[in-house]
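Good day; I would like, with your permission, to put a structural problem before you. A protein sequence and the structure tokens that stand for its backbone fold form the material at issue. Thank you for your consideration; the sequence and its tokens are set out here:
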Amino acid sequence: MTMTMYQSDRNFVSPANDASLYSAMVNDTNGTLNRGNKLNVTVNGLTATVDTGQAVIQGRLVEILSAESITLPANTSGKIVVTVDLTKQNDVSGTAGDSNYSVTVNQAYISVVTSGTLTQDDLNNGGYIYQLPIASFVSTATTATTTNIASLFSDTGWLSLSLPNGTGTNGGTGWAQYRVKNNMMMISFYNINCSANSNGNQIVIVPESLQPVGDHLRYFSIHNYNANTGYAWPVMATVQSKGHGAVIYGMWNYSDFPKLTGATGTIQYPIG
């Protein structure tokens, strides 16, 4: 038989099955939870200490029960990470089902990455290693400074948005970003020049999975901002729902100004 159901009578549910389910239920997001001291990192000399807390990594709940310390390499920079490493074997003692049975987990540990590139495999689709950054550091020969990385669960942090063909920024000063936090989509952009795209009003492209759902478009108030004069004119931004297009575009009173040359605003809506 090629089909099974793990949560069925007398069947066996492995840790991998559980992790796959939990990861899917939280939209495959990773991050620290509001538990304990949230894996806060402090440093003394070249010794970094990670405080108590929990994190969800690829559907696996990892917890630091008491503070863990790690030595940072001298004269370098990098990140302190919580690593889930499925290539390692856990140590087992006793007999399963008996009171003396215990497991020493070697598949989760604190480590340091100095290469600049984190390993973030999809552990639920054949991957083996995922590194969740919790702090960055810069060290000298004898000391180091650390900066905690806010990666609270269900928060992507600010990520770059793609621009439509022909859309750009004025002198490289503009930007467009989005952030998903607690199932809310937040979009923010500044000084986006849309005059050279096909309709002269296309601002940014929203990933399809993060578009609003439903048959209706969503409308928000933004502005056409002139960074040279400091003046701003009202614009209505249209966010298309799934199946209706991925581009956010602007509409305005064309007698006020002919082209959307400095689209600036913030948009927020729930996902799902």
In short: The radius of gyration is 24 Å. The mean pLDDT is 93.
